Amino acid sequence: MVIQRLAPLLLPLLSSIALLLLIEWLKRAAVLPVFVPAPSEVIGLVAASPSLVVRNLVPTLRNAASAYGIAACVTLVAAAIAVTWRVFHRPIYTTGVVINAIPVIASAPLLAVWLGTGSRTQVLIAVLTSQFPMLVGAMQGLSSVDARQRELLHTLSASPRQVFWYLRLPTALPYLFAGLKVAAPLAVLGTVTAEWAGADTGIGAMMLYALFSYDIQKVWLAVLLCCALAAGAYALIAAVERIVVRWDPGTSR
User: Fold this and answer.
1) Cβ count within 10 A of residue 72
2) What is the pTM of this model?
3) Rounded to an integer, what distance in angstroms lies between the CA atom of residue 66 and that of residue 55?
4) Cα-Cα-Cα-Cα dihedral of 68, 69, 70, 75, to 10°?
5) Which terminus of the chain is less hemmed in, N or C, by CB atoms within 10 Å?
């Protein structure tokens, strides 16, 4: 029973360990090119300077979490407005599409020039990067209310607020979490990309400085930290979903 519960976590973990061991063996066998370091070299870099990881991981984590929370609140409010007043549905959705269509690699330098290179700019860029999956999930979920349940609440003289809290929001939870899970890694990647535009600390800044100095081990360390942070963000939201959504979304509630 315990093994079955841990299987979704153990399988990716064991696969990652096997991949690292394979890369280590290939590097020692001189099969891999010079720009691919051995995992032991990256681990040695962390062991030699753990403050390097902490100093750059904390700002990225803080800004990504702030951006994620802001994007979740804004998109939920926007989706609620779009569903409640249908006249706003198309403008809100179109705005989200337009924002999502702008490449973050192009918008980040412009926003950095206009607003500076501080953490507020990095949070704004991460918000713009992660908002669209949340908006789509929230709008689709809040619109997927069963007509019979809505008529029942109308018969019971439920107010629009009661309809939202007792019907629309619980119905929308599977859709909301689908968008939240997709948006979690995007918030991390948006923050890292924003750090390329002049940040002093952060995973993106460490990656950029290491590229300029051709520090291969540090480049790969930054890449692995970014991947781990994005995967951890997704896993965290998925774990919260398992706690909150206790029913099968494909069955009747």
Assistant:
1) 21
2) 0.85
3) 18
4) 80
5) N
- Could you give the dihedral angle defined by the CA atoms of residues 82, 84, 88 and 89, in that order, rounded to the nearest 10 degrees? 50
d(CA 73, CA 175): 15
Is 238 within 8 Å of 96 (Cβ atoms)?
Answer: no
Tokens standing for residue 143: 């619109």
Residue by residue, pLDDT tens for the chain (253 residues) are: 555 666 666 777 788 888 888 988 988 888 888 888 888 988 888 888 889 999 999 999 999 999 999 999 999 999 999 988 889 999 999 999 999 998 888 888 888 888 877 888 899 999 999 999 999 999 999 888 777 777 777 777 677 777 777 788 888 899 999 999 999 999 999 999 999 887 888 999 999 999 888 889 999 999 999 999 999 999 999 999 988 887 665 554 4
Q: How many CB atoms lie within 10 A of CB 5?
A: 9
End-to-end CA distance of the chain: 26
Q: Which domains does the chain have, with CATH numbers?
A: 55-244 (1.10.3720.10)
Q: From residue 155, how far is each of 26, 85, 163, 166, 236 by CA, in Å?
A: 69, 21, 12, 15, 40
